[in-house]
Amino acid sequence: MSKKFIMSFSGGKDSTLALYRMMNKGYIPIGLLVTVKKGETGSWTHSIQKELLNKVSESLEIPLFLVECEMNEYEHKFTETLLKAKELGAQSCVFGDIDIADHRKWCEDRCKEAEIEAILPLWQEDREKLVNEFIDNGFSTVIKKVNLTQLPSDFLGKVLTREIVGEIKDLKCDPCGENGEYHTFVVDGPIFKEKVDFKVNKIVIDGDYGNLDISI
């Protein structure tokens, strides 16, 4: 019998690729766990609006587990949601992390608290090969957020292609953005029922970060 899992989901390329791989292996996702800043409308890190996350959930046909929290309660709320998923049959939580040891430890600690397995299907694979695998499998994603100390705001809104990955490398940045150079929002691909359409409102500059403000 295929194992059921909950996906720690950012809406970006790495978690989407991890989800895709697990589904291809016959694992069954019971939910997408997405953390959202308490009192705000956007998700942590990627700043994706709740309405768009709901559209992604509908297109993937996987329920959304929204976790609204402050930073000081982030860990507790995450574990609490894992426990709820466990009650619904989840035997593991899947993460899209690649090779940052502290991130892996955090994932494993939360799963240990909930007494479920932590699975990291992309772990220690070549970063550039992973982003190319994502692109080559037909996924479509836009660059949603950039660290302006490493990438210019011109990259915001660009669809991630092999050519764009090459431009990112030319600027001496990690092609996968694993060090926080950029974050993405996946809008289409082989596991999507339909493309998630959005409109661009404006570019927001907040300190060292540029964010593409998008909505339905």
TrEMBL record:
SUPFAM superfamilies: Adenine nucleotide alpha hydrolases-like (SSF52402)
GO terms for MF: diphthine-ammonia ligase activity
Domain spans labelled Diphthamide synthase: 4-214
One GO BP: protein histidyl modification to diphthamide
Pfam family, one: Diphthami_syn_2
InterPro entries per UniProt: Diphthami_syn_dom, DPH6/MJ0570, Rossmann-like_a/b/a_fold
Xref: PANTHER family: DIPHTHINE--AMMONIA LIGASE, DOMAIN OF UNKNOWN FUNCTION 71 DUF71 -CONTAINING PROTEIN
Name the UniProt record assigns to this protein: MJ0570-related uncharacterized domain-containing protein
Organism: Romboutsia lituseburensis DSM 797
